[in-house]
Structures are given as structure tokens and as C-alpha cells.
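dude i think i finally got it to work??
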Amino acid sequence: MSPAVFSMKKQVFEEIVLLVSIVKWMSLAALIGILVGSLAALFLYLLELGLNHWRWQYAWFFWFIPLALVVSSLLMKYLAPAGEGHGTEQVIEAVHKRSGRMNVVQIPVKLLATLITLTAGGSAGKEGPCAVLGAGVGSLASDCLRLEDRDRKKVTICGISAGFAAVFGTPVAGALFAVEVLVLGMVFQEVLLPSLVSSVIGFQTTKYLGQVYHYSYIPIEEFSPLLFLQAAGAGLFLAMVGYLFIELLRLAGFLGRKFRERRIWRALLGGLILVAVAGGISTDFCGLGLPIINQATAGEKMPLTWFLWKMFTTATTMAAGGVGGVLTPITFVGATAGNAFAQVFQLDPAVFAGIGLVALLAGCTNTPIASTVMAIELFGADISAYAAIACVVCYIAIGHRSVYPTQILGAAKSPSLMPPLMRSLDRVEEVEVEPGARRKLTRVEGVFRYGRRWLRRGVRKFRK
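look at this
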């Protein structure tokens, strides 16, 4: 056989293998998307039913928050002790440590506890339980099909993307989020095709079953260099907001673990604090807060401190044993913080609320690519450049931290930093500065000291 014929045969076999792989993973991903989309639609319907036919009909609903937190906490303790937390972090841990294996028994318990927490007025999100639902469906399907560990991980990631898309109505961002969130600084391109198919099918299934999504187009006439710089400045501000939010959630997790044996008293105390906030300030911090997000991105001016109150109520809900995700609270905080930034600097509140929503998500979850695409899907292509710069700036400036402590650190955010790689972020305590960068920083500090001395001398001469 001539070398040319042999080479041609190898190329043909390569293409056949790739074609079979495409068909295999599109079929598997479509199956996962249909299953996750259907179950997510049922969960979202029950949640809307609880909110519309219970919470919003009674002005005194928030008095039930302490009882709801007690019930949610006890459900997780006795029926699904391994499922405590806000959901997505458990899925990330399952992918890294157990090849995507999930305890399917904990899924209905977590969904029920989330429904109780959110319906009563606890501050949490709905995407965490849907991510657990998607990962659980993927794990169960892997068991039925007897897939090996490598394929099981892919199927679990497909479940994550379908759950994300079903909640937010952003199929492309959902696919990118699932392949970007697992390891900081790395994108799992090998899973991109099945993740995209699963995300699109899951979104369309949920939409077909009656779920309605809200999109708010934000028009921007032409590119403005000044607005681009202002968006970068907003990214820095949102990085500070995200840093505070992550530390509050970390403190909430510490308090929850410390008083684990006194969970009833912990839930009652946290519930009473939430009742005081709801009765004394506003009930808008209770539950998902979607109306406030929609108002902020529509250009209505929000009170300047509302993003701080939402962070506080979310951390209190988590510390008290409430069950739910954190991505929806992050979008609330980001939208209202961006809205406040715009008011302070006399900018367009709608534009910066949209930028804030996705930029804080990028910083808190280390997913700048998915967050930028999410901005385009939610608000239109006009905002893409401004959202992108804010997402990347917030992602870098927030440092090596995340709302998901089980996220793996795969790459440093600056070549001048030397963090310990391939560890979970909860094990990254201190980040060393590269010696050459340290010397440069010392020189910069010297220049600033000299400039400060020169300025003081000039002020003294002016006064004389």
C-alpha cells in the first residue's frame, strides 16, 4: 500500500470517528436537555405558583420566614445532609472529585426546601437547585447507560448548562458557563458541543412548556470611547462589591458550620433578622427580587444602598440554613449596584444596570466569557463591548476568589502573581508576588513618595 493511500485512509477514519462522536454527543445532550428542561419547567411553575398565589397576595407573608428556614434546615439535615449549600458548588465538587456522580435522592429534597425558602421570602436564587437537578439527571442517565467516568463528567456538565439556560433563558451563555465555571482560567472545549446542544434543547423545552423569559433591549446608538472607559471604571467598582459579597457569603458559611448543632435557633434568629429588614425597610429583598432587577435594567432609579441590603439578606438566609442558589442574588446586587454607580456619576442607569448585572456575575463566578455572551442575549448586541470590558476588569480585579469555593484554580490572573495552581479556591490562602514584580512595585512606591514630598514643598512655598 502506497504512503499516499495509507495517509488518505487514516484521514477518512479520523473523519468517521469525529462524525460518530458528533452524532453520539448530540443525541446524548439532546436527551439530557429534554429531561432537564421538563423537570426545570415543573420546578419553575411550582415556584411561580407559590409566589403568585401565596406571597404577593398577603402583605404579612414575611412573618413566616423563620418557620420556613427551620423547616428547610431540618429537611436538609434529616433527608439530604450532603446537599446543604447553594447547589452549584456541590455540582462542581462532584465533577472534580467523583467524576460527576450525584446522590439522586437529595434532588427532590433540595427542590422542596428551595421552594419553601423562596416562597416564604428567604433571599436566595433558583439556579442552584436547577444545576443540581441537571447534574443529578446527568448522573442518573450515566448510570442507566453505564458510561465511563470521562463520559459521565461530560453528561453532568450538559446537565449544568441545561439547568442554567432553563433559569435565565440564555442558552449560549448557559453552555459557556458550564464549560468555564469548573476551572478558573480554563475552558473545557471538549465539552462545548454537547453543552451547547443540551443548553439549547433545555431552554427550548422549558420555553415550550410555558416558562416566560424577560429580555430588556438596551439601545446604544454608536461606540463611545468615554463610555468604554466608564464601563471599565464600573468594573473596578463592581469588583469591590463582589469582594464584599464573597466575604459575606464566606462568613455565612462559617457561621452555619459553627452553629450546625443549633440549627433551629440559628434559623429562628436569621429569620427574625430577615423579618426586621422586610418590615422595617422593604420586602423587595425577599425571595428572588426579579421585579427590582427588571426595573433597574429598564432605567428606573433604585435607592443607592439596596445592593448592600440584598447582600446582607442573602448572607443571612444562607447562614440561617436557607436553601437556594446565589446567582440570582448576584444579578440583583449587580444590577442595583450598577444603577447606583450611574446615579452617582450622572450616567445612564439602564446601561450600567445591565453592565453591573453581568460584570458582577463574571467576577463572582470567574466566567467573563459566559457573562459577556449573557449580556448580548439579555440586552442586545449594542452593549457587548461595554459589558465585555466591565466583565474582564471585574474578573481580574476581584482576585483569586469565588462564590464557589470548590472551583479549581487553573491559571493565575496576572503573570506577576504566583498562586498555588490546581487547588480548590478554598485552599488558596495567600498569593505570592513574583520577585521582579515586587521590585517594580517598590520603585513605583518610591516614585509616589518622591512625588508626595515634592507636592508638600510646593504647597509650603505657595502658602509663604
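Strands lie at 183-184, 408-409, 417-418, 432-433.
im so relieved honestly
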